[in-house]
Write a structure and sequence with these properties.
Order of helices and strands: EEEEEEEEEEEEEHEE
Oligomer: single chain
CATH architecture: Sandwich
Distance between the termini: 12 Å
CATH topology: Jelly Rolls
Shape: globular
CATH class: Mainly Beta
């Protein structure tokens, strides 16, 4: 149980990351990803990277600049503009449903306008899941200039869409639905210089 703990990524590198040792049992037609991050990076960086052998950006949460999040499904993305210069941790959730292609995005529990992406797509189940790096190949191909520096915590991935109230529950690690990946039971391996701290 990693409640009250954070992963600290202390420096720019291509050798440090967290490998998440979990994957879905079958291809995903719905998903919700949530996590909390804290960084002062101004350059592009990757928070959560889910790659399959067919598609390195199968699911990707990427921040190209402080005022934008990009959420990828199946190699294509939608962007969400966010306020700049808050100098505090940010809790982000993004959900996607295949049937409509609708993507929903929340920042600190507040919903943003919905967008559309990859209607009818299925997310592959055999995945390499990495925190703090962006995969350009299955389980690797890291670029230090896209690496994360700072703190990541409260990482969750579900095979369902979440309601607004469930998103607020994810913010303080009090959840009802069982996730594929959950912070209260987080199977992982830290590689290189990444530290788990209270």
């Amino acid at each position: 149980d990693l409640a009250e703990k954070v992963f600290v990524f202390p420096q720019e590198t291509k050798t440090s990351y967290v490998l998440v040792r979990a994957q879905p049992e079958q291809p995903l037609q719905n998903l919700t990803l949530c996590l909390r991050s804290y960084t002062d990076l101004l350059r592009p960086h990757s928070l959560f990277s889910y790659a399959t052998k067919a598609q390195d950006n199968e699911i990707l949460l990427f921040k190209p600049k402080p005022t934008e999040y990009r959420f990828y499904v199946g190699g294509k993305f939608v962007s969400f503009a966010v306020p700049a210069g808050r100098a505090e941790s940010e809790h982000v959730c993004a959900s996607w449903e295949s049937a409509t292609g609708i993507v929903r995005f929340w920042l600190d529990g507040k919903p943003w306008p919905r967008k559309g992406l990859q209607k009818g797509y299925k997310v592959g189940a055999e995945a390499a899941i990495v925190l703090g790096q962006e995969q350009d190949s299955f389980g690797g191909g890291f670029d230090p200039h896209q690496s994360f520096v700072g703190e990541i915590s409260s990482v969750y991935l579900w095979d369902t869409e979440l309601s607004g109230s469930a998103v607020r529950g994810a913010m303080d690690d009090s959840l009802l639905a069982a996730p594929i990946v959950g912070w209260r039971n987080f199977p992982h391996r830290a590689v290189g210089e990444v530290y788990l701290k209270p």
